[in-house]
Amino acid sequence: MKKKIAIIGASMYQDALILKANEMGIETHVFAWKTGDVGESLADYFYPISTRDKDKILEKCREIKIDGVISIGSDLAMDAVNYIADKMDLVGNSLEATRRSTNKHLMRKAFEENGDPSPKSILVNKDTDLEKLLNLEYPVIVKPTDRSGSRGINKIYSSTDLPEAIDKAVKEGFEGKALVEEYVEGDEYSIEYISCRGKHWMLAVTQKFTTGEPHFIEIGHIQPAPISNELKEKIRKVSDHALDTLMLTDGAAHIELKVDENENIKLIEIGGRMGGGFIGSDLVQLSTGYDFVENVIRVAMGEEIEEPVILKLRTVGIGFITQEEDFEAYSRIVRSFSGNMIKYKIYRKLILKNDTSNNYDRCGYYIYEIK
Q1: Of 69, 123, 305, 344, whose CB count within 10 A is highest?
Q2: Backbone angles phi, psi at 100, to 5 degrees
Q3: Quick one: which of 282, 269, 270, 287 has its CA closest to 226?
Q4: Which sequence spans correspond to the domains of the chain?
Q5: Secondary element (H or E) of residue 225
Q6: pLDDT, tens digit, for every residue of 268-292?
Q7: DSSP classification of residue 83
């Protein structure tokens, strides 16, 4: 009899999971609100249930008798993933780990209590007396406590802009709260990890490129990042400790951090899931040869995995298209890294937008290898 896996979400980020599980001979059961996403047709079985309705998903998963539950690239989905794993005694991260890794205020609090380097922050809501924030040192970042993908994020330079930024962040979040935190200078990196029974293995370091202020929309990634082995080891030590702080023991983890000119590291946030933006689903295997997707499925299905063998096969990247000029602008950045010709491939091109305010407004991408 085939084993069965529940996949929470049906967006294009989940298709790698669905296809890999099918390749592994695992029956796929996909849960998401019906919007015409690719996962609806790729799955063996699709259920039009919102990813936020975790009790209804749990009821169906018990009926199906699933053997594992998983998702890629969504903090919101991880709430349902770990809730179902907990209730059905499947492999997943604990409910406390879910709280710490999906709520930025609880994450900052845990980092502070455990000595992990991260920006200072203040929790606010629509009723906060802003007179108490007069001594802030600007610029600051204002963000919702419980959203990802750059939703609701703004960098501001004065108290005059604070009320509007808080209002936007509070409205964008689910719990109606936001963080006002110090702005950290430095280069941005994301780190991909896989864990099994509390053992952590770093797979790749990716350099990130964004639109900059005020929204910091990601426009591209290069992997592996062009950093020294010494800095890579510092990043590993900080990341390992932070994963333990958040109690993330099983599956993928996506760590975002900044490194300043003196190689001081500040943790921006950590998700207990594979990175979106095709970092985990595509770039890791292309650059290292390690099948990240297969192994996170194996962990979710209750299997033990061995320490990954990481190779440096090639340098790869992805560029996101939001406006007509993005393709050429990002290609110039890539050339500055390689000094060689770059092969491009357009995987998907959709209707271009001119009002991009978060990562989910991006409408095309191209993956390439740097020769």
Answers
A1: 69
A2: -70, -30
A3: 287
A4: 4-90, 120-182, 187-370
A5: none
A6: 999 999 988 889 998 999 899 999 9
A7: H
